[in-house]
Amino acid sequence: MTKLNPEKIEDWLSKNSKRELDIILAAGFETRSKALIERLIKESDMRLRNAIVLDYENKDLNEPTRSKIISAVRSNFESYEVIPLSDLEVIAKEIGDDKGDALKVVDISGMSRVLIFELLHRMLKVQATFNIGYTEAEDYYPDQQFYERLKEKKLENADFFFDTLDEIVERKEIIYSYNCKIVQPTDFRGTLEPGLPSVLIGFLAFKRSRIQAILSSYEFSVRVFILNKPVRPGLSWRTDLMHIINADVLRRRPSKIITLETLNPFASFRLLNREIVENPDCKKANIYLAPLGSKMQTIGSYFFWRKHPDISVIFSQPSEYFADSFSAGWKDTFIVPHESLSSIS
Fold it and tell me: Which of 16, 6, 48, 21 is nearest to 335 (CA)?
């Protein structure tokens, strides 16, 4: 497969001057959830036609960003709808029925990983044509100060550190609550054969209870774990932080560990193809995929699963979120063009 990369939004806009545009985005609580529409309003000469804002059940949690998103689309798009997540089927059908010339963008910046899978799946079922938008945060949590403190604790007394990881890392103020539940939508359960060994391909998260919830619920004979590698040089420490946070998971039994860049969905697709399709261990095994990594990695994971729907996809979701401990601000916005996506869909 030709090596592909997402495009900076500036380049994408320059190639699509004067076009009509429809957008689907989620009313998330991170400020970057509104970055793409603000950039479209301020920087593009496109005709902003229709906007669909996906509304989470807990609306108050997403304020004030939610209201700012709705206000922006109300004032700048020709039409808009605010639709609850329960209506995804209706949204997909409307988009699939629209055969006009407008470009369609799905902005995943404010979407959960489960929502990304479910929305893309429904849109492709109705043969919708779309581009994917994504905005990086400026500041991520856990922050570098937390990393430095954690690294110092590990150096001081490694045995004590590993024995007390729950207490040190799983405090509720770090991103979200310790309690995580398994989520496995029916469409993504795959085709599992009794009696075959099970292989886990798991993207690690900074809240290690997310992968632990899966490991506690299933037995795997082979485990492959994927660590995030941020592209921005100033965030390179986050790979080591993720390794430290998940240290007891990684050392509990032999596992393969792979480092993967966060911003390129095509790199994720290629890695999964290498580790699953080209891996002899996976030829006669039930494959479980846990896409808990970055949102761009989740895009690559979805399109890989679409080519191999016999794979079983498992998510784990925290029971409670803490908006003050999530990312803040935004930096670059990227577009994954439909033409690139078609090469892996």
Answer: 6
